[in-house]
Write a structure and sequence with these properties.
It is built from 13 helices and 17 strands. By secondary structure, the chain is of the alpha/beta class.
Length: 427
């Protein structure tokens, strides 16, 4: 049938990204040529998010845009928004809606539409989407490995337990097998992902045990977002013991610096625990970098509690802070609580964004003039783009760069969260 032009849009979290990457690998029978939706595709897959109303709005726009750009394409929509609003998704232009709970059926649904069998190679063995080689989708630089799905926490503001279900954990031996296949395919960095990654129970020693097993393979490893209560001394010591292969960056979701709000929202830590965790990480892990999330205008949040969040961020000094304006999610406990006026929420978010930018600038300043390593993710005629081990974005100037190589650079200046550097040497 010749190569098929397919477009895959992955919205939201790294779990969605891991699933989308794997899906392309499972569609090898289509001989896919991956393109952007605007470039004309015969198949469009949109993996949606619903963590906020903004995410849902983005999903709707993507579906409408895909249908306009590809009127004759087979459009498949899946993900969290497809789980919550399948009828609306269909009305927007999807030919097939596959909710999260049926996501493992995606390859079968797609291949059947194009008249191809879903054999054991092209059908995922389970919901964790092990796919081995995924070079069809990217430049074989960084691969995401999904090891866990679902969440049992039930935080008051969060809709994820409804869209992802209860926690499920992938056996560690299966994870190792996929990692070995990805390394053999040429990937230079692996990223562990999960809806609640730190709760991983597929290894007798949890996520720390899995990290030790993976580090023995000799390829750099990152962990995606973690809940603070799932992160402790054992995991931090494991990261430190396997440096520099295990990257020294953790994303620890904060949400608010107010202990009253943390308890009200069902979070399982307080500000003292979080502060001590960050202190311990900086003590144990050389070059440790912290990124985090905060939510502006949680229900019942007072002005004083907003200021507590501001002050707490000044104390822990993350290198990057993702700021979300609270929006009520349907059927959550927080949606039934007294709400902060939207204008107040937006103003508090603006203040937090302003502070985050100031902290980022202060954290970056000492890096200017120094040397660091960068894994090149994209290369062009005049240089490339990548990330440092501590997850700073870097625009690199230099001739002859190739995606997937490590280079040592000298940082020249910074623009917002982006470092600008020049190649010093290649490793």
């Amino acid at each position: 049938m010749g190569r098929m032009r397919i477009a895959v849009r992955s919205l939201g979290c790294k779990v969605n990204q891991a699933e989308s990457d794997s899906l392309v690998g499972m569609l090898a029978a289509l001989e896919p040529q991956v393109v952007e939706p605007s470039e004309g595709a015969e198949l469009v897959v949109i993996n949606t998010c619903s963590v906020t109303t903004t995410a849902e709005s983005t999903a709707r726009k993507e579906i409408r845009r895909a249908r306009r750009a590809n009127p004759d394409a087979f459009i498949v929509v899946t993900g969290c928004y497809a789980e919550l609003a399948p009828e609306q998704v269909a009305e927007l232009g999807a030919d097939v809606v596959v909710p999260n709970r049926n996501k493992a059926e995606l390859p079968r649904v797609i291949l059947k539409h194009f008249g191809l069998p879903a054999d054991p190679v092209t059908t995922p063995p389970n919901e964790f989407w092990g796919a081995g080689e995924r070079g069809l989708y990217n430049d074989r630089v960084r691969a995401f490995i999904k090891i866990q799905d679902g969440c049992n926490a039930g935080c008051a503001y969060c809709i994820i337990p409804r869209t992802r279900g209860r926690e499920r954990h992938r056996d560690w031996r299966e994870v190792i097998s996929e990692a070995e296949a990805l390394i053999a395919a040429g990937y230079k960095e692996l990223v562990l992902t999960g809806v609640r990654l730190g709760s991983y129970a597929g290894h007798p020693r949890g996520v720390a045990g899995l990290v030790s097993e993976l580090a023995a393979l000799g390829t750099p490893l990152r962990l995606s977002s973690l809940e603070p209560e799932d992160t402790g001394r054992e995991l931090l010591k494991t990261i430190a013991a396997h440096a520099p292969l295990v990257r020294p960056h953790l994303h620890l979701s904060l949400q608010t610096g107010s202990d009253r709000l943390l308890a009200l929202m069902g979070r399982r830590y307080d500000s003292t625990y979080y502060r001590e965790l960050v202190r311990m990480a900086r003590e144990l892990v050389a070059g440790f970098a912290l990124t985090t999330d905060v939510i502006a205008g949680l229900p019942t949040e007072s002005e004083a509690e907003h200021r507590q969040t501001v002050e707490f961020l000044r104390q822990v000094r993350p290198s990057r802070t993702h700021v979300f304006t609270y929006t009520p999610r349907p059927k959550t406990k927080a949606a039934r609580l007294p709400q902060i006026p939207f204008a107040v929420r937006k103003e508090r978010a603006r203040q937090l964004i302003e502070l985050a930018a100031k902290l980022a600038e202060e954290n970056v300043r000492p890096l200017i003039g120094g040397r660091t390593t960068v894994l090149v993710e994209k290369a062009n005629s005049g240089g490339g783009y990548g990330h440092t081990p501590d997850y700073y974005e870097v625009e690199v100037a230099g001739e002859g760069l190739r995606a997937g190589e490590d280079v040592t650079v000298r940082v020249q200046d910074a623009r917002g969260y982006l470092l600008r550097a020049r190649v010093d040497s290649k490793t």
